[in-house]
């Protein structure tokens, strides 16, 4: 097969590992920067061009769309879909999971555990918003934040009110969340491919930080997850419509609580922490799906 890895960063570990996994399984891999693609959208022969030439017909793409370019990146994935190319994560599901409010609403509709979360747009009734999520201590998050930046723990009502007021005053979109103290500054990253958790790591934040993000100095180690955690991770990925995703889970007294479903999960951290290869199962999954699609088309024809 010819597989496109849609990434702006060919030198990144994750991109390199995906290319390596494609090649080691006998496929040709092309790294395509989605941001440099330009598209001809018409009803007769839609196409995608890059650097003056048409992108060759691919069998599949692995989208690794950075959060800063979700809008254009998803349009490029959609164009590949229009050309009949299989996308390991489809454009609609990527967009869905990037909208933090929508993603949490979808998880809640499916009855998947999550921390009690409140959203507000205007600073009209901050005390009630704080009560809604059970009062302090609570976590306030900037919706535009990633990698733990813009995630604040407010231990008192006064602190919570000031932070919420400040964020809303700056017209930032925020969510206010129950603080899961018993998670002890750690979370579980489950790497899901298809309907399986192929690897899981526990991430622990540096001393004194409740955030476990590796980018903030946290460290990861292999962890055995419970059947309930496994089920929750797979259900969360399904709720988004994704096939390849990282699910962040907090271990709480009332069971696993999903924080986020990431459609372009980092490969380096989890492979290094667990010693498990996660790129190869992605390519295996694509092989299975493309073969199934071909078989279906034959039946229809
Ligand atoms: P980001 O998407 O920016 O990484 P997260 O929502 O994942 O933001 O939060 C970053 C980290 O902060 C999480 O990995 C987790 O360790 C911690 N955290 C986030 N929300 C809560 C919460 N409600 N209770 C306890 N810890 C939390």
UniProtKB/TrEMBL annotation:
<feature type="binding site">
    <location>
        <position position="248"/>
    </location>
    <ligand>
        <name>Mn(2+) 1</name>
    </ligand>
</feature>
<keyword id="KW-0067">ATP-binding</keyword>
<dbReference type="GO" id="GO:0016874">
    <property type="term" value="F:ligase activity"/>
</dbReference>
<feature type="binding site">
    <location>
        <begin position="178"/>
        <end position="179"/>
    </location>
    <ligand>
        <name>ATP</name>
    </ligand>
</feature>
<protein>
    <recommendedName>
        <fullName>Probable alpha-L-glutamate ligase</fullName>
        <ecNumber>6.3.2.-</ecNumber>
    </recommendedName>
</protein>
<feature type="binding site">
    <location>
        <position position="260"/>
    </location>
    <ligand>
        <name>Mg(2+) 1</name>
    </ligand>
</feature>
<feature type="binding site">
    <location>
        <position position="260"/>
    </location>
    <ligand>
        <name>Mn(2+) 1</name>
    </ligand>
</feature>
<dbReference type="InterPro" id="IPR041107">
    <property type="entry name" value="Rimk_N"/>
</dbReference>
<dbReference type="GO" id="GO:0005840">
    <property type="term" value="C:ribosome"/>
</dbReference>
<feature type="binding site">
    <location>
        <begin position="211"/>
        <end position="213"/>
    </location>
    <ligand>
        <name>ATP</name>
    </ligand>
</feature>
<feature type="binding site">
    <location>
        <position position="141"/>
    </location>
    <ligand>
        <name>ATP</name>
    </ligand>
</feature>
<dbReference type="InterPro" id="IPR013815">
    <property type="entry name" value="ATP_grasp_subdomain_1"/>
</dbReference>
<feature type="binding site">
    <location>
        <position position="262"/>
    </location>
    <ligand>
        <name>Mn(2+) 2</name>
    </ligand>
</feature>
<dbReference type="InterPro" id="IPR011761">
    <property type="entry name" value="ATP-grasp"/>
</dbReference>
<keyword id="KW-0479">Metal-binding</keyword>
<keyword id="KW-0687">Ribonucleoprotein</keyword>
<keyword id="KW-0648">Protein biosynthesis</keyword>
<feature type="binding site">
    <location>
        <position position="260"/>
    </location>
    <ligand>
        <name>Mn(2+) 2</name>
    </ligand>
</feature>
<feature type="binding site">
    <location>
        <position position="187"/>
    </location>
    <ligand>
        <name>ATP</name>
    </ligand>
</feature>
<feature type="domain" description="ATP-grasp">
    <location>
        <begin position="104"/>
        <end position="287"/>
    </location>
</feature>
<keyword id="KW-0464">Manganese</keyword>
<comment type="similarity">
    <text>Belongs to the RimK family.</text>
</comment>
<keyword id="KW-0689">Ribosomal protein</keyword>
<dbReference type="InterPro" id="IPR023533">
    <property type="entry name" value="RimK"/>
</dbReference>
<dbReference type="InterPro" id="IPR013651">
    <property type="entry name" value="ATP-grasp_RimK-type"/>
</dbReference>
<dbReference type="Pfam" id="PF08443">
    <property type="entry name" value="RimK"/>
</dbReference>
<keyword id="KW-0436">Ligase</keyword>
<feature type="binding site">
    <location>
        <position position="260"/>
    </location>
    <ligand>
        <name>Mg(2+) 2</name>
    </ligand>
</feature>
<feature type="binding site">
    <location>
        <position position="248"/>
    </location>
    <ligand>
        <name>Mg(2+) 1</name>
    </ligand>
</feature>
<keyword id="KW-0547">Nucleotide-binding</keyword>
<keyword id="KW-0460">Magnesium</keyword>
<feature type="binding site">
    <location>
        <position position="262"/>
    </location>
    <ligand>
        <name>Mg(2+) 2</name>
    </ligand>
</feature>
<dbReference type="Pfam" id="PF18030">
    <property type="entry name" value="Rimk_N"/>
</dbReference>
<dbReference type="InterPro" id="IPR004666">
    <property type="entry name" value="Rp_bS6_RimK/Lys_biosynth_LsyX"/>
</dbReference>
